[in-house]
Amino acid sequence: MIEAAALRARLVGIPYKTDCWVTSAGVASSQNLGSVNVFRNGNTRTVECDYLACGFHLVPNTELASLLGATIKSGFVEVDEFQRSSLENVYCAGEPTGIAGVESSIVEGKIAGLAATGQAESARSQFAARDKARRFGDALNKAFALRTELKSLADAETIVCRCEDVNYGRLIECENSRDAKLQTRCAMGSCQGRVCGPATEFIFGWKPGAVRPPIFPVKLENL
After folding, report:
1. What is the DSSP letter of 69?
2. Residues of 130-145 as b/e, b for ≥16 C-beta within 10 angstroms?
3. Is the dihedral of CA 29, 31, 32, 37 positive or negative?
4. Cα separation of 196 and 184, whole Å?
5. Phi, psi torsion values for 37, nearest 5 degrees
6. In this structure, is the dihedral angle defined by the CA atoms of residues 215, 218, 222 and 223, taken in order, positive or negative?
7. How far is it, in rounded angstroms, from Cα 192 to Cα 204?
8. How many angstroms separate the CA atoms of 182 and 52, rounded?
9. Residue range 75-122, pLDDT digits in tens
10. pLDDT in tens, 108-165
11. Within 13 Å of residue 118, how many CA atoms lie on the same side as its CB?
12. Among 25, 35, 17, 41, which Cα is nearest to 149's?
């Protein structure tokens, strides 16, 4: 909260708009951005700008836990009060258990470490701090939840899979993620669906495929 207040103080005089999103960008030249079109309250306006930073939601990395066979619920690794997963002697902390910021990750890591070494009471003493951090996370997730209107942003030429240059127009002809892979190579590039996977899940409702090793892409020479 202190950091947020300090940042807000440095931005005094600069408008801060909520309930709006960028629908498209215009280029001033082949190398430079010139403007963006912003949708707010049912209207679209063009704003001149030099740089655009655009993000949509946060996605946890649960691949390792999924590969091990841990229970994944609502997109996160399911853990008990001591950060134990559904697997014996496997603990999980941080963003895979819920997006709540660095403070939550640190205290969850403390709880997991203490519990894993048999210090249950010491771990329990950290529960209040974790609950406080998670309340912040809940507020964050509520404020930045993806809106259904965002599903209409893409047009036929919008790139969905950057690795394989697959656009939205090709994907709307597919039935599921497997069909998309076979027909367009969507999610078969270097990121292995880490970027386009969450996008297609949100836009089309496609469930991601099974996780296979390696967890992160590596060169064949390294294997």
Report:
1. T
2. beebbeebeeeeeeee
3. positive
4. 13
5. -100, 125
6. positive
7. 18
8. 34
9. 899 999 999 999 989 999 999 999 988 999 999 999 999 999 999 999
10. 999 999 999 999 999 999 999 999 999 988 888 888 888 888 898 899 999 999 999 9
11. 0
12. 41
State in Å, rounded, how far the first CA of the chain is from the last one: 45
φ, ψ dihedrals at 149, nearest 5°: -60, -25
Distance, CA of 171 to CA of 165 (rounded, Å): 11
Q: If you ran DSSP here, which 8-state letter would residue 30 be given?
A: S
Helices 196-204 and 177-184: crossing angle, nearest 10°? 120
**Radius of gyration over alpha carbons of the chain, in Å?**
21
* Distance in angstroms (rounded) separating the CA atoms of residues 146 and 143: 9
Contact 45, 24 (CB under 8 A): no
The model's pTM: 0.78
Residue 159's SS3 state is strand
Q: How many C-beta atoms surround the C-beta of residue 209 within 10 A?
A: 14
Provide, rounded to the nearest whole percent, the portion of the chain with pLDDT above 90.
54
Residue 213 has pLDDT above 80, yes or no: no
Positive or negative: CA dihedral 76, 195, 146, 50: positive
Domain ranges of the chain: 2-48, 63-143, 153-204
